């Protein structure tokens, strides 16, 4: 399977950097299991990301969330969304990217969002202990999700 893993967030704002770390870990696990996996790392999603998804079988997005999920993380299929909440750092959501692709006539792969609940978004380059634990649970949860849905 040809997969792109997109991790985004600000790695200088503690838990907001979990997307970068998560993308690298998921891509490594996919490669170890015989899949072709590339990564895209950024501070935020941009409309140009749409072109990176062409020709892929699966796109996995991973980011920190201020939402506090019961398990500390959430994994969900991305659905198309035209909603834009003004121009801010999170204008380009995975759902908006999917919507944009449809408007451009670009065939998109299946898209999955992995959200990890953060607790500390202050300045710093390391994840909080709580977020690190949630990230590890999310990685295990993703492996099971992937195995159940794509193998």
Automatic annotation (TrEMBL):
Keywords: Hydrolase, Protease
Molecular-function GO term, any one: endopeptidase activity
Single GO BP term: protein processing
InterPro entries per the UniProt record, alphabetical: Pept_HybD-like_dom_sf (IPR023430), Peptidase_A31 (IPR000671)
Domain of life per record: Bacteria
Full protein name: Hydrogenase maturation protease
